[in-house]
Amino acid sequence: YRAFPLVSGPAAVLHTATTNFTLLIAPLFGSIAYGHYYFGYTKIWAPVSLIGQALAQVYLGEASRWARTDAGLMLRSFDSITKKLAWIGLVPFGLLALAGGPVTSFVYGAPYYEAGVLAQIQAVSWWFMFVVGPVLNTLNILQRQAWMLWADALGVALMTLSFVACHALGWNLRTVVALYSGAIIAMYSVMFWLCRRSIVLAMQHNAPDSRNE
Q: What is the pLDDT along the chain (213 residues), one digit of tens a residue?
């Protein structure tokens, strides 16, 4: 169990960094720009993410038991949960992707149009986080903490590259948020594959040896 403090600790730090990278918006673009970003994050993403957090707790308890008794059932549950979340998330995040700016300005007023546009740019990445986030503990359950560490390192590297390029080339805030969202999509896509792959490997490891049947 040494991997928990030695590997999971750094992975948790990197994962926290990926969700707080946008703090760099304030020094790069000013407090008003960061206010627009933070408004969309707190008013749109944060409430929806509560659904994923609740499911993550349920999945953690059940998957821990299935990992010891039936990896096949764990895989079916993994697929079922992610598919349901994908369909559920299509409605709010699809609407946000299509008309985030106009909808936000209609609900909160014209001054918040830019906040809606920034949320619109992030809609797809938020959908990925909504779908994959609740099952990320799969890697901890199956003791694949190193995989999580590498995926988080990939995310941090891509985000660092985005903000460095922004500073060097003078890109605007919308471009930076788009690149940040692309990094989130890449990171969570890799994490989804790693989680599912870890379950498949557990099934193969626990399968009875046909030579001994």
A: 665 666 667 777 777 777 777 888 888 888 898 898 988 888 888 888 888 888 888 888 888 888 778 888 889 889 988 998 999 899 889 999 998 889 888 888 888 899 999 999 999 999 999 999 999 889 888 888 888 888 888 888 988 888 888 878 888 889 999 999 999 999 999 999 999 999 998 888 766 543 444
**Dist CA 137 CA 160 (whole Å):** 25
- Report yes or no: 118 and 175 within 8 Å, Cβ to Cβ: no
Q: CA-CA distance, 98 to 73, in Å (whole number)?
A: 37
Place of tokens 């944060």: 46
Look up the pTM and report it.
Answer: 0.86
CA trace torsion 55, 60, 44, 180 (10° rounding): -140
